[in-house]
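ok so i was messing around last nite and threw this chain in just to see what happens. nothing serious, just curious
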Amino acid sequence: MSRPAGAVLLLGLLLAACSTGGPVTSPVPTPERPAAVTPSPSRPPQPPPLDDWQVGARPLPLRPDGFGRVLPTPEELRVRRLPTRDLLPPPADGRFRSTVTAVTPAVRRRMGGSWSPGCPVALPDLRYVTVGFWGFDEQPHTGELVLDVRVARDVVGVFRRLYRARFPIEEMRLVTSADLAAPPTGDGNNTAATVCRAVRGQSEWSAHAYGLAVDVNPFQNPYQREDLVLPELAGAYLDRAWHRPGMIHPDGVVVEAFESIGWAWGGDFNTLTDSMHFSATGG
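result:
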C-alpha cells in the first residue's frame, strides 16, 4: 500500500538531517561550582611561654656588707617572663583604672615596717594608689603603691601612659614587713614606691622614704655600684644593648613618661647606675 505523500516527505526530511550532520539539540551542561572552602579560624599570635621560676625560693650567701652574693643570672631569667599573681581584681573591661585614697588602717597594717612614726613623712601625707598595668602574660592587672600626696596623681598619669603603651610590669604591690625581713634571694621584681629606708650605703633618707620615688621592674633594670648588683641575680640585664621586654631605655616610654612630670631617672646618675629608679627629688 502506498504511503501518503506528506508522510513520505516528512520521513525524507528527517533522514536527510541525520545523514548530513545537521543540528541536533542537546542539553547544555551546567558548570560545576567549586566546593565551598571553609576558612580555618586564624589564631592570634601566641605569646612566648612564661617561666616557672619560683621567686624567693633560693636564699643567697651573704656578703660582708649584708647584701647577697652577686651570682650569674640563671638561664631561665636571662629573658625574664614570669606570670603576675593578682592580689587585687584586674580591670574587668580591660580599660585603665586608678584610685587615689587615704592610707586606711587596713593598708597601714599591710605596709608593716615599710613605714613607721619615725619616717620623714607623716601617714596623713601619704596616699594609697591603685593603677592598671600590663603583665608579661599580656593581660591587664591592678597594682598598688603608696606615694606622697603631692605626686600621687602625677604618677597615676605616668602609669596611664605605660598602660596605653602596654609596657610590661611583672608585679606591683606594697612592700611588707615580710619582704624587709626575708633573706636576699636576688630574684625579686616588685615595682614599688614608699619604703622608709636610707640611701644605699649612706645615712640620709632615700627619696623612697618620702614617697617621692618609684622603682620599675628592678630585675630588668638593676642597680650597679662597683661590684654590687641589685637584685643580685640580675647581672645579665647590665647589658643594656640587648633589648628585652620590661627594660627601660633613655629614649623609651618609661623615661619619657616620668620626665613629663619632672622626675629624674637613675640611669643618668654619674657615680652609679640605678636603671629601675625614678624620683621627684633627683636622687
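not much to say yet. The mean pLDDT is 88.
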